[in-house]
């Protein structure tokens, strides 16, 4: 059973990201403020949910949240500031877009930088413990999937609509065969040593 609140504050926001381990595309974060009586028996960490369940939850969260937002941080920025800083930036950018200002922020994971002096707490595996973080994880994942499906049309040979940019065997084989695109993260090891590209 996921918990509704972590702090004593009335307006508590949960935030999470998706796509940290991908070789291509953005890292995407979402921030969600839920009403006190929010519940949905399917809601859980997005990694535990099927695509069907995530896609069913997305409009429910968006309809019932007091406020929600998402933000992409793209591959060029990831390469410039590293994936951890890019993930935190995406979270900050999503919180920035909320129509309500949170009084407290709960963050999935163990790394965060204070946002506008609002108190926060990092919670390891928070997306499986708190409703608002779970909701943020679902929105981050579904919004990133939408983006990756869109850019798949431009470069169908990498099959991003299926692998979403993660380092699958198929994705790496396509990089080996076709090279890299403008969407690939150059600061990531795109191929294992034995498959190295001559760049």
Explain this structure.
- By secondary structure, this protein is of the alpha/beta class.
- It has helices at 51-64, 75-81, 83-96, 131-152, 160-163, 169-178, and strands spanning 12-18, 27-33, 67-73, 104-108, 120-123.
- A 5-stranded mixed sheet has the order 3-2-1-4-5, with helices on both faces.
- The N and C termini lie far apart (50 Å).
- It is 36% helix and 15% strand.
From the structure above, extract its key features.
199 residues, alpha/beta, single chain, 6 helices
SSE blueprint:
Blueprint: E1 12-18, E2 27-33, H1 51-64, E3 67-73, H2 75-81, H3 83-96, E4 104-108, E5 120-123, H4 131-152, H5 160-163, H6 169-178
Parallel strand pairs: 1-4, 4-5
Antiparallel strand pairs: 1-2, 2-3
Helix pairs in contact: 1-4, 2-3
